[in-house]
Amino acid sequence: MILFIECLIAIVLFSLIVVPMTAKDPLGVISDYPPAIRKRCVELGLTKETEKRFETKDLIRKGVAIIVLVLVAALVMIKVNHAQSFIQGFGYTYIIWLAIAWFDALVLDCGWFCHSKRVRIPGTEDMKEYHDYLFHIEQSCIGSLLGLPACLLVGLVVMLLS
Fold first, then answer.
1. How many angstroms separate the CA atoms of 49 and 53, rounded?
2. CB–CB of 74/154 below 8 Å?
3. Which of 7, 78, 113, 146 has the fewest CB atoms nearer than 10 Å to its CB?
4. Of the candidates 47, 29, 15, 46, which has an alpha carbon nearest to the alpha carbon of residue 112?
5. What is the residue-averaged pLDDT of the chain?
6. CA angle, 84 as apex, 78 and 89 as ends, to 5°?
7. Which are the contacts of 110, defined by CB distance < 8 A and separation ≥ 6?
8. Total domains, the chain
């Protein structure tokens, strides 16, 4: 039951960060948009073309978020879940990570992003890629794998501190 509640809390916190940021400035999170929409934004002069999908600022932002996640998750695993082993710290954290990833893919991306006009970038409103559900599912699969190193670190911290 505690793990279920933690998943819900994590989903709410994630949504409170992502939804306002995306609705306020869709170009601020353009690296998370489908490739065709990113390309059109470059053609319209709304963003600059880059060889990399993620700019340095994106990587720094995501890197800091992962460090904070690891530290907070390790503390929660030890203090709330009473995790005492690597497997418990890793396993509980990865379940929460997957809950967030799939909520993001199915509810925020396939539900909200694919259907809300608030996230449309001027000049791209006509693009069918806004309804590309497969893109969001693929990105969630990648995100699920990217969560493994962070959750492994949580397991390691739990093991070292318990």
1. 9
2. yes
3. 146
4. 15
5. 92
6. 65
7. 133, 136, 137
8. 1
